[in-house]
Amino acid sequence: MTKHTSLTTEQMACVYAWLAQLFSQERDDQSLALLQTRELAEWFAVLKGEPSLEAEVLLLEEKIAALKVREDATLELAADFCSLFLMSDKHAALPYASAHLDGGPNYGVIKQLLSDAGMQVSDAFSESADHLAIFIELLSHLHFSLGEPGGSHQRIDALRRETLVGLLRWLPEFATKCRRYDDFGFYGALSQLLLALVRLDNQS
């Protein structure tokens, strides 16, 4: 893994884990409050130290600031989540690889990657295996593994690269639809940050 970023592999893992959580379910009052903490602001400052992420983080910070004055912010953000990710694909950004790739669902690829990484989809996660959050969680796991001493780093890095290539086949279209159909813009900004992070990771 050739390093082309100021972020450590552990930091990359943490960002991926955070993004996976945000794309996997709606925010409640508590998790919404966590978006507005000093700790997250400090974390964003670290991310802005990476030039290829700075603009996307600034945009996300702008949307988080707007949440503070948005009436019924939790309910409205939940409605945004549902309309973007759970409804018809006509004016939505469905978070499934099969919604953006020709040929319909192909769960075998991601399931094989998960198996090779020693992972599987939790029974508690009710979505299909090609959900965006699964890809992101896998990348988080692989980066954490790369940061551990010993182990087969070459094999893990090969899995990371394969996951990134598969994700980049459809993530740009997903991010474009997020930005187009998310009127408030929180998830649109979040998808732009994810895309920038994945592209940065793919350069490593």
From TrEMBL:
SUPFAM superfamilies: TorD-like. It is found in: Cytoplasm. Coiled coil: none annotated. The keyword Protease does not apply. GO terms for biological process: protein complex oligomerization; protein folding. PANTHER family: CHAPERONE PROTEIN TORD (PTHR34227:SF11), CHAPERONE PROTEIN YCDY (PTHR34227). Belongs to the TorD/DmsD family. TorD subfamily. Signal peptide: none annotated. The keyword Hydrolase does not apply. It comes from the Bacteria. The gene is torD. This is Chaperone protein TorD.
